[in-house]
Amino acid sequence: xxxxxxxxxxxxxxxxxxxxxxxxxxxxxxxxxxxxxxxxxxxxxxxxxxxxxxxxxxxxxxxxxxxxxxxxxxxxxxxxxxxxxxxxxxxxxxxxxxxxxxxx
Amino acid sequence: xxxxxxxxxxxxxxxxxxxxxxxxxxxxxxxxxxxxxxxxxxxxxxxxxxxxxxxxxxxxxxxxxxxxxxxxxxxxxxxxxxxxxxxxxxxxxxxxxxxxxxxxxxxxxxxxxxxxxxxxxxxxxxxxxxxxxxxxxxxxxxxxxxxxxxxxxxxxxxxxxxxxxxxxxxxxxxxxxxxxxxxxxxxxxxxxxxxxxxxxxxxxxxxxxxxxxxxxxxxxxxxxxxxxxxxxxxxxxxxxxxxxxxxxxxxxxxxxxxxxxxxxxxxxxxxxxxxxxxxxxxxxxxxxxxxxxxxxxxxxxxxxxxxxxxxxxxxxxxxxxxxxxxxxxxxxxxxxxxxxxxxxxxxxxxxxxxxxxxxxxxxxxxxxxxxxxxxxxxxxxxxxxxxxxxxxxxxxxxxxxxxxxxxxxxxxxxxxxxxxxxxxxxxxxxxxxxxxxxxxxxxxxxxxxxxxxxxxxxxxxxxxxxxxxxxxxxxxxxxxxxxxxxxxxxxxxxxxxxxxxxxxxxxxxx
Lengths: 104, 510
Description:
heterodimer; A: mainly alpha; Histone, subunit A; 4 helices; flat; B: alpha/beta; Amidase signature (AS) enzymes; eleven-stranded mixed beta sheet; 17 helices; 11 strands
């Protein structure tokens, strides 16, 4: 049976890139444990001889015709981004960024 | 506004007829709905954004085409306005998924269904409220306030598509689009006395539908009659090469099936009562209306028998593994980098991209979304993947097998849409598990990819609408439209009109 420890939720929040507050972690711990109990029962019927299904309506993969289409313009594609220079997205100044820029 | 009041109470099919006969213009019809929206919004709050100027411009463009005799080949619903769940992207019209993380975002492209709606000359009235990223069953998880049930403003409209259902139920819009991942079209339909359809998975393109759980998500129609939803289903359905899960086949003949059903002859139609849905946990008023409706199906000639789908009880648990797993993956894109909200870390915390993402997502996502992302991140992590995600995908195989076997014996399956009628605000928000259990009857269709729909079948003891659900085999959506339309016609004869005529509409008399 799955049980969520506080440390585990902190780790998951870090993996998921969400800066949860202490209060949120406490609340989520009890809520997730209740959900996890309910979910555990699926393992009763998921035996080795049952194949998994990813897509409920299986289709043959196909390639679409190679036809040129007009994509978004750079202006349209960047319209929602924080910007201070044309054609650029403004991002935080991470360590290592300077080296990265010098490479170009 | 009495003429306008009569107009907005028509079915979408009747409105379309008046447009074709030039009794009314698309502009007049669109304006009449914009007037209702203005009068009703203080009560229902179904819309996040009303695109009045765009809607009137689209109506004028259609009216011009009609005057010039240039409407050849347009669908029957041409000129009839529609509301769009704010989970579907609309070029130039803000799209938020009811999340602070997308507040103010204006998409640079249209979803395929929006292109089809525009090509059909159907004016877009605005964007409707929902649970944030379609995650919830009451619309209480919207970042932008509650939508109220038009039958009783102290109750929820269901969710996640509470806005679309309330807009249609309150006559703000004759039609709406929804998205259904675990019941988000059908359960709000049940709660508001309207019709909601989840087509076969892959039957309607998901290109431009904001992704929640990609193997479960499906766009579908909301309306006040079975025929109206069928007509809209035909407008939006069909193959789209921009969606790799889109079925490469034409839309099934759903409108013809609905019209066939209006004849109320169900001889030879085999109806299966799902043994595993009902009983404990289902309100007495829901069970009573459901059983009466089954009797009506029998009285029209349908053969009714009980059918067992033994693995159905496991589908809820499997859904709560698959759905959050896919949510955690799909919502990874909201990182504050290229669009949407950006929140920098507080002073003292390194101002890195990773920390910016963590503080942006902390500020931008609500409780329910965070809960599902954390649960999904867990289910997909090394060491747990096989036990959780792998097991859930096996359950999915078992549920699909159950449906296949059932459809060897019957043409459609039926159940109540939800265990209860619309509940009061706050009743379930503190207990996520009880909210999840309310989706027990709708989730199996998403797990199996089969089409399903909810139609109103009467009022419970508390005066709130009850939903009746039909399921059909994959790719045979038409199979459920015929008995649904027949049942609707038989019920409306008993009621003396559409169920919504029993609802008080003070906003229409203002």
